[in-house]
Write a structure and sequence with these properties.
About 35% of the residues lie in helices and about 20% in strands. It is α/β, with parallel strands linked by helices and about 180 residues long.
Length: about 180
């Protein structure tokens, strides 16, 4: 059987908000290893708005072997709320990489990605759509992904960040928590 080459495209803020709703932190290293082991993901992109005060978080993404794709932020309110809309960048990267991968893993709950997920499904290039929370995923995505959908909430025992005291089966440096900024991007 031929080895398939898969890439992952992660809507990082959507993942962050979904994990916050679930009430637990995602272990970045375990998640990256899971993507590789389960879906053969060779390259995993994280799309996120850039904020200089979160440089340590970005270093953690890199340390866990994610390719971080930054989007400049723009102020969208008088209160100083910022937005870094990554949707177009994520879709563009998928299309740029399209000839290189056999399958794509898309991580989001955002219905704006329905067209992308539908196209990947119809061309047999969708490995899986991963959504953090089944209660928050867009119905548009569910219908586009059909049977190729998985929910991170079912993987808590495998992917939750646990402090060193609770991690007896792994060495202390093998876990990296995903502590995201509180700002909505």
């Amino acid at each position: 059987m031929k080895f398939r080459k898969s890439y992952a495209y992660i809507d990082t803020q959507n993942l962050n908000l979904g994990m916050r709703d679930l009430g637990w932190k995602l272990d970045l290293r375990r998640y990256r290893r899971f993507l590789k082991d389960k879906y053969g993901v060779q390259k995993a992109y994280m799309f996120i708005g850039y904020m200089p005060e979160y440089e340590e978080l970005y270093k953690a993404f890199h340390a866990a072997d994610f390719v971080v794709m930054f989007k400049p932020l723009s102020q969208v309110s008088a209160e100083g709320k910022v937005k870094g809309n990554i949707d177009a960048d994520l879709v563009l990267q998928v299309m740029l990489d399209y000839p290189e991968f056999d399958r794509a893993v898309i991580v989001t709950s955002d219905g704006d990605f329905q067209g992308l997920v539908n196209h990947l499904y119809n061309t047999n290039k969708l490995e899986i759509l991963m959504s953090p929370n089944p209660r928050k995923v867009s119905n548009l995505l569910v219908s586009a992904a059909r049977e190729k959908i998985a929910f991170i909430d079912t993987l808590r025992d495998k992917l939750e960040y646990r402090p060193k005291a609770r991690r007896q089966e792994e060495e202390a440096d093998q876990s990296t928590p995903a502590t995201f900024p509180d700002e909505t991007q």
